[in-house]
Every structure is written in C-alpha cells, then in structure tokens.
Amino acid sequence: MKTVTPYILLIGAALGMGAAYRMRQRPEPEPAAPPSATEQVRETPTEPEKDEPLVVVRKTAPPPPKPIEPPEPAEIRGKAPAKEAAPQQSTPKAVQRRPRPAPNYWEIAARRFSQKQDMLNREQNPDRRLALIQSMSANVRIDTPSTIDWAMGLEDPEERRVALEAINKNALVGIGARIHMDETGVPRIMDTTVLSAIDSTGMTQPGDYIVGIENGEGEPTYFKGQSMQNIVQQLRGQAGTEVNLIMERVETDDSSKSVVFNVPVQRSMIVVQPPF
C-alpha cells in the first residue's frame, strides 16, 4: 500500500495538468451584448423587491393622428367669406335703347276696346254676343263719338238696340262743364265739352264760378266748403232734368266787383273725346 500511493499521486497530478492545459486551449466565450431598448421593454422582473411596487413597462403604439377639423364658418368668426374670383368673361356692350313712353289711359282703353271687338267677331253664341256688346258700351265714357258710331254700325237690329240702351245707361249726364277748385273753395269753369248743355245757354263762359244750386222752391245750396265729389254728384242727374245754377262772374279789371246770376241748365249726355 505504501508503494502504490506515490503512483496514484503522480497519475492524479498528470490528469490535473492535462485538464488545465485543455482549459487554456479553449477560446474564452465572448461577453454577451447588452439587451436592446426593445428587449428591455419586453423584459419584466421575475420577482420584484418587497420595498418597490410592481411596475410593468409595456411598449405602447404611437397615438393616432388627430382628425382634421373643418374650418370654422366665416359667419362665426366674424369674417366675410372669401369670394372666389369669377372667371373673366368678355361681356358684350349693352345696346342703349330709348325708353318707350308709358301708354296713357286713352291708349289702354282703345286697345281693350279693339280686343273686345275681335272677340265679338269670333263669337257665335247670341247670348254671349249681347253680354259682350253691353260690356263694350261702357266705352262711351272714354270716347263717346266712336262708341255711338260703333253701336249704330251693328247689323243685327236687336244687338243695335241693346248697344244704344247700354250707352244711355253708361254715359255721363250733367251740365257739360269741366270744373276745378281754386283757392276760394268754390268750383270754377275751366272749359266746356262738345255739345255742352251749359254752353248751349249762351249765358256762361270759362272763368265763371258755380256758387251753388237752387231747388224747385228757390232754396239755395252753396258749394263752398264741400268736396268736389259731392259737387259733381249734385250737378249730374238724369238726362232731360233741369238744374238751376247760381253763377258768379268776377270783373277782370276790378276783382272786388262781381256779378251773381242764375242759369237754368237742362242736363244732357256729356260727350267725352280722347285728346288725340
């Protein structure tokens, strides 16, 4: 046993040296690279310390982009909206035309009468023709001579009779004088109409004042202070009736002198003619 021991020691020493030699010949392992930021985020501590709270760091996605809001209306901001520039177009020069004069009352009435005449020429129904003739007879207040000539030119006797009766009904009846109110407040004769009833007396002239009228008993009614509408209504009446006028004529050489006189006038149809 004493002789074996030294050999065992020698073998163990040789084995130890060989192992040491092999260990020197192996390449040393390269140091591991430090973990990246992404890997550090993914790692979590396996066991947190007791004094520190558990914190889990997670990689979050970037926030979504904010939606683009529409611009605030200009009315809310207090600014006028920007006007888009209109495409420039070449506009033709406007042709200057002379304005037509507006048609007067007489021209419009003559045009309407002509239109009704065309309707009468096309109408075949007897009742409708008579109704149209009565409507056309009202033109006697606008153009008396031409309306009477039209009525007398109707071929059918019944239609002619209806037209003349309608003319007598629609015609204006009075003394045949055009009057106006001056600063005195009394109506004054401007002129007289064709076939004037007051002109046929030979007692009046333009410029005379119609002071009032007298009734059958001689009681006067004075026109001063009355409206023109009331005065005209009293001067007009049925054809053939008589009205007694109170007239006043002022002397031209001396306005302080005047003559008052009465003129009896028999009312008749007032002949109206257009000024053309």
From TrEMBL:
Composition bias, Pro residues: 61-73
Region span, Disordered: 24-102
Biased composition (Basic and acidic residues): 40-53
Name of the protein: PDZ domain-containing protein
